[in-house]
Known about the structure:
Blueprint: H1 2-32, H2 48-53, E1 54-56, E2 64-66, E3 71-74, E4 77-80, E5 99-105, H3 108-111, H4 121-130, E6 137-142, H5 150-159, E7 168-173, H6 187-190, H7 200-218, H8 222-228, H9 230-248, E8 254-258, H10 273-285, E9 289-292, H11 294-298, H12 316-333
Parallel strand pairs: 5-6, 5-7, 7-8, 8-9
Antiparallel strand pairs: 1-2, 3-4
Amino acid sequence: MRAPKGRWASALVLTSSLAVALLLAESCLRLCCPVTYGEPRQDFSDVPWMAALHRPSDVPGLAFEMAPHREKLHFDVTIRTNRFGMRDDEVTIAKPDSVRRIAAIGDSYILGFGVPVDRNLPSRLEQILNEWGGEPTWEVLNFGVSGYTTRDEALVLKHKALRFEPDVILLSHVFNDPEIDPLLRPHNHFREPDWWQHVHLLRLLAKARRDLDIKRTTDGNYTRYLYENPERWGSVVRGFEDIAALARARDIPVLVIVFPLFPRNSWDDYKYRPLHGQVVEAAGAAGLETLDLYDLFAKRDPAELRRSINDLHPNAEAYELVAREVAASLERLRPPTR
């Protein structure tokens, strides 16, 4: 009878020791080396414009959205939203008879991060199209929201943009669009955290597991990992299919514009040409038209087209080039008069 008691005592000591070790590890992480990965309700202390301009969304599956009637100065550029939460002029839901509308859907590249509102892509495209003269006139509605993915953009089309009766859908694709991990900002700020996110040690293990997966899949290249991971890349494919189905049911043409990631030095060092082909093929398989901007941008020094060496968003000059290229493509699409 003594042997079982001894085993129980040993197991209790082992369990107690493990619990103490885990508590000590958790305490050390909290006090000395906090784990920010997956941190619940990550604040926006370093990006206050996000907190000022956004709110939780009521759309099922959409974590957040731009709030209406907000204004924030960011990098000497004012971002102001209308009553629908768009960085745009006030518009009516019902489309006037003399107007053709383009719904521009995407992330910060459509929003126009860091450039004045009249120099971003939707505004410049609208100005260029209306320089053609005559009727109908054009409205390009800006549905861009920083941080959105292709999956989010499909929800924007379904629950928001279609109400405005667009004649054309313009969808941007940037190479972080498969980034559906809800543990990243800004999604993580607006969603209810999972229980384990409150434990630093478990967040550290989750990060280690993700980093190991990235290393094993692509030898450490995070962007390529997003396109080789079936779940993340699959979210883009399904998003394209959902967008195509919604547009096809209403006979609305869709143009997907594929933005390259600006290299820090030269286009000779560009690593992501195969990803361009992957996106174009997937969009084409869903029945969507595409405009790959790589050749357009590669003719110029990347330093001339990005905002800065530390901010790889397009600048106003880049948006000017894209707007003129998109306008030429729209002539080819010839959307029907509605």
